[in-house]
Amino acid sequence: MESATLNTLHVLGLMVLIFLVAFPFYWMIIASLKPLIIMAMNPLDLWPQPGELTLRAYKEVWFQFRFWRFFVNSAYVSSLTVLFTVALATLAAYSIARLRFRGRAFLSRSILMIYMFPAIVIAVPLYALFTKFGLRNDLHGLVLVYLAQTLPVAIYMLYSYFKTLPPDLEEAGLIDGCSRFGVIWRITVPLSLPAMISVVLYTFMIAWNEFLFAFLFLDSPSRFTLSRGIMQIADNINVSQQLLMAAAVIATLPIVILFLMLEKYLVKGLTAGGVKG
Questions:
Q1: What stretch(es) of the chain map to CATH 1.10.3720.10?
Q2: pLDDT, tens digit, for every residue of 17-65?
Q3: What is the CATH number of domain 65-272?
Q4: What predicted TM-score, i.e. pTM, was given to this entire model?
Q5: Secondary structure of the chain in the HEC alphabet?
């Protein structure tokens, strides 16, 4: 009897959790597809009727408000951030996990110290520095900021994973004539695929969704990322809620699809580092 009660509570709790997570996204999609006049007359009518849904809001946002440009900018910034983060984090994490050098123990313990400081604390100095060196209103300057944000966690994740890999395989590769970089590329990286994909997903999500630094450093609409572009659209008093919801769906959907595709690798990458080999 007690077991059945616990199972019932578990199912109810899971259903409530799913509802809390899925309902806002469902409402956002319905609000973007239903005609504005219908939503204005009855905002609580969230059940689509046959022939009622329309993609007009998506077409208007994508072309009239040039949302495609914000999408391309975000994809460019996020891809560069992922590329540099994974490359630098792999080398740094491998060095800490495998090589012996002075300060290694302190470095391995202090990787995440940067997160002791809120982002807003470094925003003003960075703004002044980027203005002086001509990096403000430049997408590549934004990549540098995102790299500083994502690199510590990426190093920590890969370091924890590399510690679980047996060093014997790497030593055998060195004996067979591989260079250190050859060992990393041919042995360590293939064995660390779950952790690598976890870092890719984490880094991409941070760069794709970030708003504060995009708001501070980007001035020209042609260089706006998605988060900055949505704010520009929201500031327009003539923009309806339907258009805002369409913009939000476009910005959210790639992350959702990417997460669903790579979720199993994310779980493996995050949990494997906690297992002692």
A1: 65-272
A2: 888 878 888 888 888 888 777 766 766 667 777 677 888 889 999 998 8
A3: 1.10.3720.10
A4: 0.84
A5: CHHHHHHHHHHHHHHHHHHHHHHHHHHHHHHHHCCHHHHHHCCCCCCCCCCCCCCHHHHHHHHHCCHHHHHHHHHHHHHHHHHHHHHHHHHHHHHHHHCCCCCHHHHHHCHHHHHHCCHHHHHHHHHHHHHHCCCCCCHHHHHHHHHHHHHHHHHHHHHHHHCCCCHHHHHHHHHCCCCHHHHHHHHHHHHCHHHHHHHHHHHHHHHHHCCHHHHHHCCCHHHCCHHHHHHHHHHCCCCCHHHHHHHHHHHHHHHHHHHHHHHHHHHHHHHHCCCCC
